[in-house]
Amino acid sequence: MPISFSMTSNNEENTTDNIYKNESDNGTDNGTDNDSDNDSDNDSDNDSDNESIIHVDKIDDNIEDKSNNLSKKFNLSYNNLKTINDHFNKKYRKLNQSKSILELKYKKYKWCNNIWNISIIGVSTILTLIESSKLVFLDMGESYEDNNLTQNFFVLSPIFLGTSITGISSFIKFKKYQEHMEEIYILIDKCIGMLAKIKNKMDELDILLNNYDEYIKSDLINDSYYVESFCKDVKNIHKIYEKDIIKEFLVVYHETERYINFKDYDKYLHIINKSDYKRHILYTDKDIFYSEYKASVHNDKNIDEKYKDIRNISLKNKSTVKTSCF
After folding, report:
1. Least C-beta-crowded within 10 Å: which of 102, 104, 276, 287?
2. Nearest-angstrom CA–CA distance, 184 and 106
3. CA end-to-end distance (rounded Å), the chain
4. Would you give the DSSP letter of residue 245?
């Protein structure tokens, strides 16, 4: 009996000790688990928040970088467009000036050629008249007098006139008026074709410049579609200018400068400049007249008297163009 009692008491003590240990172990384990879970949750939340903030910042930075790249690309294309436009304007003015000088030289050659040919026609007509008159009024076989002025005139004048005709014909062949006229006419035709091509591209450049102004006003420079289309159009014109326009222009300009020397500029530039000034003034006056006339028609049904007079004169068609062969 004493032995069994002692054994049972020892067993009870061991069981109670195990219970306390398990409880303490469970307590510490739950505490550490909860703390670790809370810490991990807080850390994960903080990390996710930081990552989301960084991601948003990166998106904003990417958007800003993209807009900056679009604006830079757009501005570079615009500067390139302005440079090409300046080149086209310079080439157009230069080639138009050369064409005008060639036209004046062609007019000079044509005038000289016509004068000498008309003189040949006149001398030949006089020679024919003298020969016909000599056969009618003189009989050289029956009575010939050495000191007779009339007979000497009819005898010597055909010789002089025939020699003049031969000399004028030789002079015309020596000066080669007809050959120069044909070559200059071909060059003028080439200049007109080249000017038409340049004018076509200048119109396209004007459209792109107007589009640039519209994009700036409507804030479309941040739209990638419009920027890419604008840059593509500028790039295409630049390629056409480098591969086609500039090469053909240099060929035509080289051929025109072969027929123009430094004296031609002194002779013809003042005439060309005066003509350009007058033309510009007339075009400006016409535009002003159209704008004023249109405004007066829309604002007031009763048009001013001067516009009525101009309108009546133009509609009556009293003035006729005088034509002349000389």
Report:
1. 287
2. 6
3. 165
4. I
- Residue 154 CA to residue 139 CA, distance in Å, equals 11
How do the pLDDT tens digits run along the chain, 326 residues long? 333 333 334 444 444 444 444 444 444 444 444 444 445 545 554 555 455 544 444 444 455 555 567 677 777 888 888 888 898 999 999 999 999 999 999 999 999 999 999 999 999 999 998 888 877 766 655 555 566 677 777 778 889 999 999 999 999 999 999 999 999 999 999 999 999 999 998 888 888 888 877 777 776 666 677 778 878 888 888 888 888 888 889 999 889 988 888 888 888 888 888 888 888 888 888 888 777 777 666 665 555 556 666 666 666 655 555 555 44
Contacts with 195 (C-beta within 8 Å, 6 or more apart), sequence order: 92, 95, 96, 99
Task: State whether the Cα torsion 33-34-36-40 is positive or negative.
Answer: positive
List the alpha helices (DSSP H) in 219-245. 224-240
pTM of the model: 0.67
Structurally, the chain folds into a number of domains equal to: 2
| CATH number of the domain bearing residue 138 | 1.10.287
The helix-helix angle for 177-218 and 2-137 (nearest 10°) equals: 150
Burial class (CB within 10 angstroms; exposed 0-12, middle 13-18, buried 19+) of 249 = buried
214 within some domain: yes
Boundaries of domain holding 295: 262-306
DSSP secondary structure code for residue 148 in this structure: -
Contact 226, 220 (CB under 8 A): yes
Q: What are the angstrom distances between the C-alpha of 19 and each of 2, 7, 16, 108?
A: 26, 18, 5, 131
What values do phi and psi take at 114, rounded to 5? -65, -40
- Inside any domain, residue 26: no
3 state SS of 142: coil
